[in-house]
Specification:
Number of strands: 16
Shape: elongated
Strand content: 15-25%
Strand order of the largest sheet: 4-5-3-2-6-7
CATH architecture of the largest domain: 3-Layer(aba) Sandwich
Largest sheet: 6 strands, mixed
Helix content: 25-40%
CATH topology of the largest domain: Rossmann fold
Number of domains: 2
CATH class of the largest domain: Alpha Beta
Order of helices and strands: EHEHEEEEHEEEEEEHEHEHHHEHHHEH
Length: 398
């Protein structure tokens, strides 16, 4: 079977045709190209695609020129005539170990730029599979180098574990430092011959996990299925204008525009349940289905409102600027402020009735500096998640 190529951070992955077409269109309209980021990736981008930028931008730079073009500090860009330029960001950030999408989007939005109107980001991470792919049921998914659709696999042991969740589980977002990978390493270090499949994907809610469980998980013949979730159910609720809980939040505008060529897009009947009721119903359905299939099932209600260290607070503040650029995300932020706390405590009070749901919402209360943005944790945080899941399920696993 052909394997999907994996790229290290020093090698620029192929840029999607969508992004290239956007750049070509901006240049054709008369806007001058500039590149945020100086280094080997920017050089590869220029050489591979034949781009000659007007200038480069960098953060806190001491360089005057790069590739014979002038270099300016990105924070000085606020004084430029931004309508004349289009920025391509290829800036690798050491804090998040990524150029996609958090830190660079915050910096550029603070300079007054609007995503896709004034700038675009070339996704770079430490190690990742190629482009996301359309999934007709779930909106988006991807194929990893092990050639398994929708799942990253760790190990090839007899005891089979499947992990589901959103971006806090997704191996792409977590740069191959996800908690399912650390869980597999824990199992291995404790003498358990295991395979762990990571089926997390950014934006998935408990409903998406339910659909994926029904369609894909049992093909893998798991002994144990684990969900680590809660945040997306709170943030992608349907109690703000223009959004349905049945709508896939990770279905891109381009995919939706494609579907609309054939008529109206239907998302199902309006769901009148509270977020807490909907979330718990999804978990109970997954538990019931797993019982029928003789698979053990456990869910972990994740931390939803992390404490802010100084650097995390900057991400929170920056995201207010970023969300303002997007209608749905701007509305989502208002929901988070106004409604999510009430729904959050509704879930916390209800899950105590169920022995297959663990309340991890306070997991990080005594630990500092685990978050690198408003929701996601670093390697230490993912190790903490894995260790506590292993401890909670040790009697089931052994």
């Amino acid at each position: 079977m052909e394997k999907t190529e994996v790229f290290e951070r020093e090698v620029l992955p192929p840029v999607s045709q969508d992004i290239l077409n956007l750049i070509y269109g901006k240049i054709a309209s008369g806007r001058k190209l500039c590149i945020f980021g100086i280094g080997v990736l920017s050089e590869q981008f220029c050489n591979r695609y034949g781009f000659v930028p007007e200038f480069f931008l960098d953060e806190g730079t001491k360089a005057d020129t790069f590739l014979d073009r002038p270099v300016y500090d990105v924070y000085d860009y606020v004084y430029f005539e931004k309508a004349e330029h289009f920025v391509v960001a290829i800036k690798y950030d050491e804090l998040t170990k990524s150029a996609y999408p958090y830190y660079n989007r915050i910096i550029l939005s603070r300079a007054g730029l609007v995503y896709r109107k004034d700038y675009v980001i070339i996704p770079i991470s430490k190690k990742f599979p190629l482009n996301n792919q359309l999934d007709y049921m779930l909106g988006s998914s991807r194929r990893y180098e092990n050639n398994i659709e929708g799942f990253e696999r760790y190990g090839t042991g007899k005891f089979c574990v499947v992990a589901l969740g959103g971006s806090t589980t997704d191996p792409y977002v977590n740069y191959r430092n996800s908690w399912p990978q650390y869980l597999w390493e824990l199992l291995k270090s404790n003498g358990i011959d295991a395979t762990v499949y990571n089926g997390g994907f950014a934006g998935y809610t408990s409903k998406d996990e339910l659909f994926k469980l029904i369609r894909d998980v049992f093909v893998l013949k798991p002994d144990l299925a684990i969900c680590y979730n809660g945040v997306n159910d709170l943030f992608f609720a349907d109690n703000y204008e223009g959004h349905s809980r049945y709508k896939r939040p990770h279905l891109s505008n381009y995919q939706e525009s494609f579907f609309r060529q054939f008529g109206d897009v239907l998302y199902g009947l309006q769901d009148k349940r509270t977020v807490a009721e909907s979330y718990l119903d999804s978990l109970k359905l997954m538990k019931a289905i797993c019982d029928i299939k003789n698979t053990k099932y456990y869910a972990f209600f994740q931390p939803c409102f992390p404490k802010c260290s100084e650097h995390t607070k900057e991400y929170h503040d920056g995201y207010k600027d970023v969300f303002a650029d997007f209608t749905v995300l701007g509305s989502m932020l208002k929901v988070a402020v106004n409604n999510s706390y009430e729904e959050f405590y509704g879930i916390k009070s209800a899950i105590s009735e169920y022995d297959f749901i663990f309340d991890f919402s306070d997991l990080f209360e005594e630990i500092e500096d685990l978050h690198y943005d408003y929701a996601h944790v670093n390697a230490k945080g993912n190790m903490t998640i894995a260790a506590n899941i292993y401890k909670s399920l040790e009697c089931v696993i052994i």
